[in-house]
Amino acid sequence: MRPILRGISPQAVDFDPYTNAQKFLISRLGPYCSYCERRVATNLAVEHLQPKGNALYGHLIGCWRNFLLACVNCNSTKGEKDVVYSDLFMPDRDNTFAAFSYPPDGTVVPSSLCNTARLLSQANATLALTGLDKKSNIAKDENGEEVYLDRVAQRKEVWYVALDSKKDIDGAPGVGGIRNAVIKIALGYGFFSIWMEVFSSDSDMRKRLIDAFHGTRGSSCFDLATSQAISPSPNLDGLADGGKI
């Protein structure tokens, strides 16, 4: 999960209807699911952290601080689950990049920083919240080629794309135009954390990625000079139970 800074609300009152917040969220965070990180060109939902269908949180339906963005898969899996911030890592208040690792097989797993029972429990609960712990349903076409349908398979595909892009850069390390082109490719696919993982040894590309994905640099979850993760998150919005890892 990409850590983000949502910032203060662009208006003084709650959103009514809440869907009016979508354009502001996309402007600040980019057209990406706040959980699985994939780019969603259409039908990117204004996601309520505390579910709007739960009567306990009716007062938060139009509240800016209760909004993220979510794809249909993450949003439907999360559903009406109660969100206990102290038990989870959330991208608007924790350095979620530091909490998870992204292997080439397309899975998402707790990172090595989750080295206590408490941290591991929080990481696993976060993955379960939106189904990021689900296994891939591998599909193949009539030629036996894999078709990238679900979130796991799509992450696996982007791993291959990112690796090819890295080869292009490594083959012409001084050509800035190639680096700019790769950033555009990354923005087109999404999955920020995979690109950061693939370019783990290239601080220049990582800094470009951090700057390119809206809302990431503002989170202050990455060192300006080295691009390394700063954890715990500074939690600049001052949100409850933030900065846990």
TrEMBL record:
Alphabetical list of Pfam families matching this protein: HNH (PF01844)
Molecular function as annotated in GO: endonuclease activity; nucleic acid binding; zinc ion binding
Keyword entries, A-Z: Endonuclease, Hydrolase, Nuclease
InterPro entries: HNH
Domain HNH: 33-80
Protein name: HNH endonuclease
Species per Swiss-Prot/TrEMBL record: Pseudomonas solani
Lineage summary: Bacteria, Pseudomonadati, Pseudomonadota, Gammaproteobacteria, Pseudomonadales
